[in-house]
Amino acid sequence: MTSCALSCSETNQNELHLQPWLLNEAADRGFEFVYESGFDGTPKYPEIFGGGVALFDVEGDGDLDIYVVQGGSIIGTNPLGVTNQLFINDGLGYFSNATEESGAADAGYGMGATTGDFDNDGDLDLYVTNVGENTLLRNNGDGTFVDVTTQAGVGDHGWGTSSAFFDMDLDGDLDLFVANYINWNVGIERVCKSQLGILDYCHPNAYNSPAKDVLYRNNGDGTFTDVSEAAGFHTIWGNGLGVAIGDVNDDGLPDIYVANDEMKNQLWINQGDGSFVDDALVSGVAVDANGEPKAGMGTDFADIDNDGDLDLLVVNLLGQSDSMFINQGGWFEDGTPRSGLSSITRPFTRFGVGIHDLNNDGFLDLYIANGKVLLAAESSITDDHYAEDNVLIQGNMNGKFVEVFPRGGVAVPLIHTSRGAAFGDVNGDGGIDIVVINRDAPAYLLMNTNAGNGGFVRLHLLNRHGAPAQNATVRFNLGGTRIRRDVCTSGGYVSAHDPSLHIGIGDEPNITGIEITWSDGIKQQVENMSAGEIRTIHQPLGAGQGSDPRTGIGMKKGSTPCEVAYGTL
Amino acid sequence: MVGAILRSWTGRIVIIIVLGAVGYSLLKIQSGPRAIRPVAGQVADPILLPVIENYADEVDANRGDPKIRMHLGMTYEAATLNTLAEATYLQFVKLFPKRAIGWYRLAVVQERQGNLDDAIFSIQRAAEISGDQMAAPHWQLALWLIDVGRIEEAKKAANLASSIKPNSLPLQIANARIAIEEGNPEIAIELLNKGDLISEIQDGYVYQLLGRAYRAIGDEEQSRLAWSRAGQSKPKWGDPWTTNVVSHVIGLQLKRQQIKQFMRSGELVSARKLIQEYFTYESDNVLVRRFDAMCDVRQGSVHKGLQKLITLIKEDPNDTFSMMRLAKSRLNIPQLRNKAGLEVTKEILETVLAIDTENGQAKILLDDIAKMLTPKDEE
Question: B105 or A209, which is more confident?
């Protein structure tokens, strides 16, 4: 019901995009999963926040598998008996549940997961955040995992939300950052009611208990040291939900952005000496252009305006616009008003987010997973009163975004309480697919049906150990524009994504002038890539290096510096 | 006489006109849709619901009366029943499209629900109708247009607002934000530093914008200084009808707020009276029961008050709020500050910490008790 309906006669620009981009094939492809919040009629705060998903190659067979975290019951020790689940891809995008015997069935009350090769053995390991002790699962490379939380020393007991592996000190191994939401336990649960007088989840301020985030430094021997206090993270607390890693000031050191719920966000600038300083306010990313701290949920870095530096997107609560902060060389302008996002996203409560070229036209698009956290006054069209549509937003040449219709990019409306979303091409057809986790409803596996509108290239950047080269950067020319893309498994909301770089190129025949900046600062020029080309590039040894000086490990066995494969699409 | 009138053509015409006018008026009073009402169970508040029902009944009885329908809309708006408010205001603007108030209220509830495009459309109608009579629709339109990046239109709206009331606070903010968006941070800095703007707008909001403007001209030092003074919220600008809407805030929530205010200001008799009235509607509200207990303690019925808190804790063994109230009350009672009494209070606080390990107040009070329990010669 809108006033526009009374007298607007002009054609809505959005009506021009009526071809569905996505098709939910979860059940057909064997991916059947429901995140169990454990809601039993009496709300307990964590039930409204989960859960997340990791999309990564578990057994090194070249396709993307799915790991989903499970809730259960926040009271007692998992009386529902549910655990996290692992789904293995057959190479064609069809999945089978391989949880049994995998060792990955963590039974904590799960929030999210992130991936990274913490032990430098060439495969991605899993870190699972829980309400309670988090879990580190070391990947054996054969589809099985070992819980190494205790020996690694990373079992933080807070309410972990988003987390990220990254090499904070550039010493060649991945450190770990974990955002915590609030200091919560069943004992401090509050009774809150909606405006209708119905029991409902509370506002975070009802607990007034922001939590400390945690930074673990990798000792290089399979163990970690909690360096949070020394690194400066105990100076400012927050209701942390989203985490993004990126080098915002291009000093070669990865920085950390934390989206806080109803509090100022934090931009932790890496000082290079093991410490971080929160510079969010002066950098212009703590609050929006109107000076308002928002309810930050999901967040991610990307070079949205194609000017070679990392911009930042934060998605927020109903009534608050998203924040699209445009990097101006180390500080940010709130570019939301000009982007067109202000009015698209305000009617929703947004959590999972991904910034990817979903139609291969060369411009980054947005997919946002939505679901309320408080009951609305109006009755819902579904039984789930927190449910909302997700939204798909197309990026255009002029830096403007327009919503894609039908809403969410799907022909048949999908309306649930969505949370984490992970992005990657699960069936290898050249289009980025999306896995979305829903609270107390089947997860979506959204297959991209719109990727054929443009060409693409794909780059697998691997470090010296054969694992994805976290925080490596690629710059290239596409149709006269110099573009930047970064390798990162984290970002969004409590989820992990395919680290390969999928680059839509529209009608262009190739990308040229490709330059890779590896995490150790070494730059490497590589040959042009043609449409449809999929290339794997290994991080070269540094000057004077025959092998990793600390581990003695050289290049992954059997690999060459540059393996080239052409897509047969 | 009557016969003469009826026989003359002029008389007949006059009678037809009069009857037509009366009929039209009656028709107008009875025309219009029925009132928007909440569905069963949508409003549980026992004070609010009858007020809504009364207004809705009045609307149904006087469907062409704008005032009653506006009262109903404002009641919904004040209770944040946004969809009901929006539907009611939509009826209003259809019936009375030339009244700015309808469009303005509609815009406010649309914006509140995140529908900024609809809100801009509605406030534009309000601005058109009010013309040069009222500045608020124009500056509100300008601020929302800035939010969606329609800067040229925002400038026009701000200029119109300026021609009506040149120095309103929201207008000055709108002009500064336009300057920042247009890449003229120097102008923004000048505008924001003008007069008493900084002190007149709450919570250091102007510093938020100054921090951004200084950063845009590359003055990092000034930017840091401004940000260090900035607050964490933006102002809520009042409009010509804000007071009217606030006067429609009705219900148990309002009563709870009033009780809290009376308790804070020490007006215990008024608080007690309101608590008793509240219990006639909702006798089991934990918050009000805590107020009731504290009222007893502070009015001298210490034992009664403490017992009420103990009852609350028995009902909910995790009720750390009541435990803290109980502990603090006990510490304020001289008779309970002996060793035995302090041990009991200590136990209460330890229970709080067992439930809520980060409870800073409990830790502080436990430290205090430890000092009180330490013999003086040991100190």
Answer: B105
Q: What's the Cα-to-Cα distance from B327 to each of B310, B339, B355, B358, rounded to whole Å? A: 11, 14, 15, 17
Angle B320-332/B302-315 helices, nearest 10 degrees?
A: 160
Q: Which residues, other chains included, contact A312 with Cβ-Cβ below 8 Å and sequence gap of 6+? A: A244, A246, A248, A257, A285, A299, A300, A301, A323, A324, A325, A327, A332
- Region A337-351: mean pLDDT is 90
d(CA B57, CA B63): 10
b/e A72-94 (16+ beta carbons within 10 angstroms → b): bbbeeebeeebbbbbbbbeeebb
Question: Which residues from A are below 8 Å from B42, CB to CB?
Answer: 196, 377, 379
Is A210 touching B (CB cutoff 8 A)?
Answer: no
Angle at B216 between CA B211 and CA B219, to 5 degrees: 70
* Residue in chain B nearest A212 by alpha carbon: B358
Residues A93-141: tens digit of each pLDDT: 999 999 999 999 999 999 999 999 999 999 999 999 999 999 999 999 9
Is residue A509 within 8 Å of residue A501, measured between CB atoms?
no
User: Which amino acid is located at B93 in the chain?
Assistant: V
How does pLDDT run across B256-265, given as a tens digit for each residue?
A: 989 999 998 8
> Between A and B, how many residue pairs show a Cβ–Cβ distance under 8 A?
136
> Cβ of A293 and B233 within 8 Å?
yes
Beta-carbon separation of A321 and B356 below 8 A: no
Structure token digits, residue B196: 């008493």
Model pLDDT, residue A331? 87
Angle between helix B286-298 and helix B252-264 axes, rounded to 10 deg: 30
Average pLDDT of chain A is 89
pTM for the whole structure: 0.83
Radius of gyration of chain A (CA): 22
| B113:A347 CB<8 A | yes
Sequence-separated (6 or more) residues with CB below 8 Å from residue B127: B137, B138, B141, B157, B160
ipTM: 0.76
Asked if A209 reaches chain B (Cβ–Cβ under 8 Å), the answer is yes
Burial state string for B74-105 with b = 16 or more CB within 10 A and e = fewer than 16: bbbbbbebbbbbbbbbbbbbebbeebbbbbbb
Q: What's the confidence (pLDDT) of residue A309?
A: 93
Place of tokens 């708006």: B77
Phi, psi for B12 (deg, rounded to 5): -60, -40
From chain B residues 109-138, the ones with a CB under 8 A of any chain A CB are: 110-118, 121-122, 125
Contacts 24+ apart (CB under 8 A), B180-183: B180/A289, B180/B209, B180/B212, B180/B213, B180/B216, B181/A289, B181/A337, B181/A338, B181/B146, B181/B149, B181/B151, B182/B151, B183/B216
The pLDDT of residue A7 is 35
Distance CA A448, CA A431 (A): 6
> Distance (Å) from the C-alpha of residue A3 to the closest C-alpha of chain B?
6
Q: How confident is the model at residue A293 (pLDDT cuts 50, 70, 90)?
A: confident
